[in-house]
Every structure is written in C-alpha cells, then in structure tokens.
Design goal:
It is a single chain. It is built from seven helices and no strands. α2 runs parallel beside α5. The protein is mainly α and about 180 residues long. The mean pLDDT is about 95. It is elongated. Belongs to the TspO/BZRP family. Pfam families: TspO_MBR. Keywords: Membrane, Transmembrane, Transmembrane helix. This is TspO/MBR-related protein.
Amino acid sequence: MSPLPEIFFDIARNPIFAVGLPIGLGAASGFITGQTSRSNWFTTMSPPPGNPPKEVFGPVWTVLYGLMGYASHLTVRSFDAAITPQATAQADQALTLYYAQLGLNLLWTPLFFGAKQKEIALGNILALTGTVLAMTVKMHGLNTPFSTTWFLAPYCAWLGYASYLNAGYVFLNRDRKY
C-alpha cells in the first residue's frame, strides 16, 4: 500500500494535470520572489559570480517544472503497468520522492525570499538536490516509453547551479547586518 493518497496518482495520470500542477504551484511561489527580488534586502546583497539576470529564472523554472511534471506522469504510467511487486514498489517510491522534492522545492522561495533566511534555504536546497538525485535514480530504472532521466537531468544540473548561487549569497553576505 502506497503512503501517497490516491489523488496524487490521479493528478500524475493526467499529463495536463501532471505538468500543470508544478508549473502552477511554482508560479504561485514565484510571486514571493518577484516582490522580494526588488527589495532593498536583496538588491543590496553582493551576488556570487555568474549570477544571471533575474528575468532568466521564470522561464527556466517553468520549463523545469514542466519536465519534472511529465516525469511524474511517466512514473505513474509505469506504476499502473507494473506486473511485479518490485516494479510497483519502485514506481511508488519514485512518485513519493517526486512529491517530497516538489514540497522541498516550493519551500525554498518562502525561506530565502519570504523569511530572508539564506542559511536555512541553503540547507533546504541541499536536501532538495539530494532528494531529486535519489528520485532521478529511482525513476531511471522504471519501464517507461521515454527515459525520465532526459526530463530530470536539466533539473539536476540547475539545482547544482542554484545551490552554488544560494551558497554564494550566504558566503558573500555573511557579515552583513540587516
């Protein structure tokens, strides 16, 4: 029996909902970013080298949310088609990791921008990256029509870069009083 309620499977079974859920939740979370990224708190911090313009983040995250959502759809298709208990368990674990990482992902923006807790946000993004890597490995072994790894590799790469940016903001602004 899965630890996830059936509604989570139903969302992922429909490709429109599977892709739309993370994009919609990400857009809602991004609203906080838009407000705070223009604030004195953020604009006066020293950015790390290689920090892109803020206009890059919205389109990149929209694509990444769509890709991860479609990977969840492929995962639940594998779950539904599984013929062994091991295959069912692997798909179930992958989908559980998917929703866990989605929660961690959506928590980062309120931590960093809303609560202005760069250090706690760094811990969050490191936990998120580990969860996404575990999810990617779990999904890679599934029997799907397309390898979910192709959908998740850009997300893994971006999280590495985002972790660097978060760590850079912590390090470069560690002595700053707010």
